[in-house]
Amino acid sequence: MGSLAMFLSVAEERSFTRAAAKLGVSQSALSHSMRRLEARLGLRLLTRTTRSVAATDAGERLIETLRPALEEIDYKLASLTELRERPAGTVRITAGAHAARAVLWPAIDRLTAENPDINIEVNIEGGLVDIVADRYDAGVRLGERLEQDMIAVPISPRLRMAAFGAPSYFAEHGTPQTPYDLAKHRCISLRMSSSGGLYAWEFERAGKELRVKAEGQLVFNDADLIKAAALAGHGIAYMLEDHVTKQLNDGSLVRVLEDWCEPFDGYYLYYPSRRQPSPAFSLVLDALRYRQ
């Protein structure tokens, strides 16, 4: 099974270098193992170029067979931890930066201190991730972006966006009264790492929804830089309100268009419905579950 697991890792990573690092083996040993596997099966499983590695048709068929089989083995092994006095094992979660810092980390901090045999890996991703293909135990998404075939558990309260700027900016340029007025203002935009496009500001009031293409002199793909630019008086920014709660309270930033920023479903931890949670995962799930 070792060479088959190695093959699956190479196919998923599309790179011998990345797969070797992930598996903790040398690249030459991994390459040798793949050649022996192909020779044993009498099939070409991987197509190698100078820049990437891709599975052949035979390789793709083998992946379809291997992936559920290896997942089942992982779950069976994880279930053996029930025989231990203390839950143990590794839980892998993918999440966006804000969810990881604001929601996951406080719970993980407490949980790992109380359960030294549980290991947690959090990978921050800017776009949507296939948690089954990438072999994550769970992912974190906003409620409105959940897939129907997943079990979803709320792990945060409802969220709200905020449009804001420095007092000095509004003193010079005036205050927008509706989202339409933003066209006359300097807006500090967010570049989406997943699509490469600019984030369209979404507003809602009394059931009426608006999407505004915010434009201005500055564009960032980092929330902290956007906040810094707003504090320095460069324009109006738009992000989750808990990023700027302190600054709104102390007056260094001023909120605008508040009546156009209605709450929406918060973060959910989601995982495949066919999976039987391990004791370690069940503990993580319970620690993260939002309780009103």
TrEMBL record:
InterPro entries named in the record: LysR-type_TF_proteobact-type, LysR_HTH_N, LysR_subst-bd, WH-like_DNA-bd_sf, WH_DNA-bd_sf
Domain of life from the UniProt record: Bacteria
Entry's Gene Ontology BP terms: DNA-templated transcription
Domain named HTH lysR-type: residues: 1-56
Pfam families assigned: HTH_1, LysR_substrate
GO MF annotations in UniProt: DNA-binding transcription factor activity; sequence-specific DNA binding
Keyword hit for RNA-binding: no
UniProt keyword terms in alphabetical order: DNA-binding, Transcription, Transcription regulation
Family, per entry: Belongs to the LysR transcriptional regulatory family.
Protein name per the record: DNA-binding transcriptional LysR family regulator
Species, as recorded: Sphingomonas kyeonggiensis
Lineage, highest ranks first: Bacteria, Pseudomonadati, Pseudomonadota, Alphaproteobacteria, Sphingomonadales
